Amino acid sequence: MTPSLETVGLTIRFGGHVAVDQVSCAFHPGTLTSIVGPNGAGKTTYFNLISGQLRASAGSVLLGGRDITGLGAAKRTRLGLGRAFQLTNLFPQLTVMENVRLAVQARRGIGLDLLSIWSSRRSLIEEADAILERIRLTARRDEPAAALPHGDQRKLEVGILLALEPSVFMFDEPTAGMSVDEVPVILDLIRDVRRDPERTVLLVEHKMDVVSELSDRIIVLHNGKLAADGEPAEVIASPVVQQAYLGVEPAGQS
Questions:
Q1: Would you say 180 and 201 are in contact if contact means Cβ atoms under 8 Å apart?
Q2: Is the CB of residue 36 less than 8 Å from the CB of residue 61?
Q3: Is 100 domain-assigned?
């Protein structure tokens, strides 16, 4: 089966520093892969290379077998690569509903033609409202995105991603900065996406309990290199994860 997403020898250098070093990984539909590693390991940089925010120094990114290495972020999104950022990425002055409606409109390929927008306006709003109900923001639908607390902004960004219906979902620390009460909503949304056998999910997350529960597979980046790749229990027990997250020194070191 052709992977839904694949990186082959993906590398980026900043001067003399190699931030991501020849990382080759294939990801398939119906799976959730968590990408973990200590701070500075290259996790977000790897995400940025995949989603097109950064241009690779070497290697390639393939989406459904198609080489997209030379494409920018916007074209990758249109081809089905969806990314939720570590920092929220919203239209702050537009309302919550308008943010989601624009994403629905973009997915349907409706441009700025006023007649086209008006003729489909009701269905666009209905779909946007259904997504707002999923992310539990119906009560805030008419508020500007900028007025939302941080946790609700994160939920809105996930809602925009859901509206785009990508084949590959990329979540970069989706629960960062959220209160304990807010986290379950985001995790439930990710679980919903994970259940779809046609979707592929990539997750960067520091909370190992979340990683352990959600993941079908974990890959570990360390100093920009792929240090481990396997089932959650096996990888979490590996020396590189034990040292990075639990401070356990490998045998033979003090």
A1: no
A2: no
A3: yes
Where do we find the tokens 């306006």? Answer: 121
* CB 201 within 8 Å of CB 33: yes
Cα dihedral angle (11, 86, 105, 141), rounded to 10 degrees? 180
| 186 domain residue, yes or no | yes
Residue with tokens 């929220």: 88
3-state secondary structure at position 209: helix
Q: Which residues contact 238 (CB under 8 A, 6 or more apart)?
A: 220, 228
- Please give the tally of structural domains in the chain: 1
Q: What number of other Cβ atoms are within 10 A of residue 188's Cβ?
A: 12
- pLDDT tens-place string over residues 164-220: 899 999 998 888 878 888 888 889 989 989 999 999 999 998 888 889 899 999 999
Q: pTM score, two decimals?
A: 0.86
∠ CA 154-32-223, rounded to 5°: 85
What's the domain range around 35?
A: 5-246
